[in-house]
Write a structure and sequence with these properties.
The protein is mostly helical. The chain folds into 2 domains: about 80 residues, no CATH class; about 70 residues. About 65% of the residues lie in helices and about 0% in strands. The protein is globular.
């Protein structure tokens, strides 16, 4: 991901957070606003904390509520969690799920190899994310191109 795109996403993240905290839901204003925001955060949260990831998913099951403060508290909690290689690899595999049925066999082998090299300490997580980012661009996965996973929490 280039630096300009990363900065753009960081500005968007900050502005969206402020707007969501200021937003007061009312009749006809569903939780979809937070669900959209979750779509951008979920892999970034997952790579830090399975517990926070699961808690946010449970939080968003209540379609009548608007738990914005707890939503961001859990995201902040995940952001302070110490990264663990196996957890980060799991998140990368979830992102990979967007491509695994569309890529040729050699691309599948390449991804397995990259994750394996990351788990053995031969390459940093950034290399895995760069590979996934290139796939997001190649396969035009807008959902992933807007994800905070590639810029971090």
């Amino acid at each position: 991901m280039d630096a300009i795109r990363a900065e753009e996403l960081k500005r968007m993240r900050s502005a969206t957070r402020e707007a969501n905290l200021a937003f007061t839901p009312g009749p006809g204003r569903p939780i979809s606003r937070l669900e959209d925001e979750w779509g951008r955060y979920k892999y970034a949260v997952l790579e830090r904390s399975q517990r926070a990831y699961d808690a946010i998913r449970d939080l968003l099951k209540d379609k009548d509520g608007y738990p914005v403060v707890e939503f961001y508290r859990l995201i902040d909690e995940a952001a302070t969690a110490e990264p663990v290689a196996s957890v980060r690899a799991n998140a990368a595999q979830h992102v990979w799920g967007h491509f695994k049925k569309r890529v040729p066999a050699d691309e599948k082998r390449a991804f397995v190899d990259i994750v394996g090299r990351y788990l053995t300490g031969k390459i940093p997580i950034g290399d895995v994310k760069d590979h996934l980012w290139s796939l997001a661009l190649r396969y035009d996965e807008r959902h992933l191109r807007d994800a905070y996973y590639f810029i971090g929490l």
